[in-house]
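FAQ

Q: What does a record look like?
A: Structure on top, sequence underneath. For example:
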């Protein structure tokens, strides 16, 4: 997951939590229920997105290469890594001198 995506997930979950707290303090139970359901759904979606990824340990040189490619293209690290593994799996070889 990209840092921007993590920040958006975190911001949405924090906003939902603040909404729950504010609604509870002001005793707006229906509003609190809406915020609670929304926050629970956000947490469930975030967890579901993360649970399908297998932790991978890369050699430091490969991790630096993926990070460099991600920074150069503005893509998330995970997307560059996924594409590199898929290219390897399908036997597609990119010209490294074209960087």
């Amino acid at each position: 997951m990209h840092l921007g995506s993590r920040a958006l997930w975190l911001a949405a979950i924090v906003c939902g939590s603040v909404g729950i707290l504010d609604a509870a303090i002001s005793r707006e139970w229906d509003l609190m229920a809406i915020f609670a359901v929304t926050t629970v759904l956000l947490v469930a979606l975030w967890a579901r997105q993360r649970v399908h990824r297998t932790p991978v340990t890369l050699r430091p040189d490969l991790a630096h290469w993926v990070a460099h490619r991600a920074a150069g293209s503005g893509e998330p690290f995970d997307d560059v890594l996924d594409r590199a593994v898929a290219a390897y799996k399908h036997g597609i070889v990119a010209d490294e001198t074209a960087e």
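Q: Is there anything notable about this one?
A: The two ends are 24 Å apart (CA to CA).
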